[in-house]
Amino acid sequence: LKMSWFWLYLPLHLLVVTCLCHSIKAPTTSSQQSFKSNLFNFYHSLVLADGKETTIHLLKDIPKRYYFVLEEGRVLAPFSVTVTPCDVPIEWSILVYKSPPGKAAPGDHDTQEVSKSHKASSMVSTIFNYKGNSVETYMGMSSHSALYLLEFLSTERDTHITVYLTTDTTSGHLYPELPVDPRIDVIGIGHTTVTLAWKHSPSVLQHRESIQYCLLVNEKHNYKSLCAAETAIRSSGMKLPATLALSLSPYLLEPQQVMILSNSELSIINKVSSGEVRQVCMGTRNTYTVPSLSPSTQYYFDVFIVNLLTNASAAYTGTFARTLEEPEPKVTELKDGKVIHVVLDGKKQKFYSLQYQARHKKIHFTFQLCRGQIRVHITRNGKTVASENLSGLRYFSLKGKLLDTYSVQLRSTEESNSSVKVLASPHFHKPLFPLLPESLKIKSFSKLRTCRSVTIAWLGTQEESKYCVYRKRIEEDQIWRELQSADRCSGPESRHKSEKVLCKYFYDLNLQRAVTTETIKGLQAGTFYLFDVYLFGPSGIPVRYHSKVVKTRKKC
């Protein structure tokens, strides 16, 4: 933008406005009044920078105007204007004022000025109009020096847009180029996955190191620009980095955001009221399988090609797809008094169904959670009778009618494997699982620790039962893994014989005194040990207390 040329135009513009003001008393047509208004607008406008993306904030129903001047002295002056709405649809237009040949110098007679003002009036025209929320580019070419006015208006609400003007069309583009066919193809649909593919941007082939693809997934609608997507997510009450695709940094995450980094892909999952919004940047790969979607749900997919050096982006034509319905889980029959061990793969099989037909009015279901997190849902003849997350050993005593049909649905609530033992029986007075104490925690006494021994305690019951204690030496960096991976349904048969410390029987009719202690000797100083206690009932099925890690003293 050559500002010096604008000052050369200024006397002529002032001259035209002055003449128009003198002619207001005379009868005028509506087109003449419109022309006066357009010329007057030039003097209430801002200069639009050349070669730079400008962010413009619009207030509802209040137009905003910018102008620029094409350089004089060039045979043909090419230029382009790109406008990106970042929220609601807007209206915008381009008006051009071309100076007529043989313009008079300032100071000529009034009659000459009036004559030239009428000449100028024929040189103002509207060359472009648009209304909508798509990214639009106007490309023009002028053989005369001209002043251009851009007018923007939002009639729905306050919003903002970006505008990019360039008069240098030979030195490359600010925005990455889209392919001739910018559509996103859905090439695979599963119950929890959708596979997408799109044609490469020409910019990737030229500037591979500074270009990357970013994908936005949501359950609401497609977005026509990256700034529109950012605005929509912010309006849901969430703060986002300045550029959605470029600022995916862990320290910028909000509490409701989850970041996942795997296989050189960086994704952020935003928890919003309208569902999840996922952002994934995958470098220059033009295929991607979106994982961990919900079955039977419609998702919208947008791909943006982003220039990492300029923060500029271009949007492919968005698409949508509906994931397949969750297949009906295989139903397993429950038999009286028979324990079934169910293992759920959190990534592949999240549901498992069991069915039981009652031969008695009273039915007892027993669940022993072995690993992971599982939610149980029990229905009788199609009506829900129980639903909760399992913890440890859980009993459900239900009363109904003969031949009632009970359905038990188990659902894993985490990605890792989960497992549970299930028992259905009408005979609660002959349980396969032992009677449990109030707590399955093992307590250690810090003051009784020595370099060679540790004292632990645990609660018992009013029923005489067998308790077996096991110990295992572990390293400090193994503690978390050992505690997380422990199978609470496994018995001593899975342990090495050398880990067994002792077995003992005890009970107390007074639950306040139903506690026992044991001092384990022969340990090494400054060493971590994992202690386990197994409780055996009448049937011989064990229940494992929560593992306890204790470190012996270094010096005594």
Automatic annotation (TrEMBL):
Gene Ontology process terms (BP): nervous system development
Pfam families, sorted: NDNF, NDNF_C, NDNF_N
Domain of life of the organism encoding this protein: Eukaryota
Secreted listed as a keyword: yes
Recorded name of the encoding gene: Ndnf_0
Subcellular location: Secreted
GO CC annotation: extracellular region
Cleaved signal peptide residues: 1-21
Role: Secretory protein that plays a role in various cellular processes. Acts as a chemorepellent acting on gonadotropin-releasing hormone (GnRH) expressing neurons regulating their migration to the hypothalamus. Also promotes neuron migration, growth and survival as well as neurite outgrowth and is involved in the development of the olfactory system. May also act through the regulation of growth factors activity and downstream signaling. Also regulates extracellular matrix assembly and cell adhesiveness.
SMART domains xrefs: FN3
Keywords: Glycoprotein, Neurogenesis, Repeat, Secreted, Signal
Major localisation: secreted
Organism annotation: Prunella fulvescens (Brown accentor)
GO molecular function: heparin binding
Name this polypeptide is given: Protein NDNF
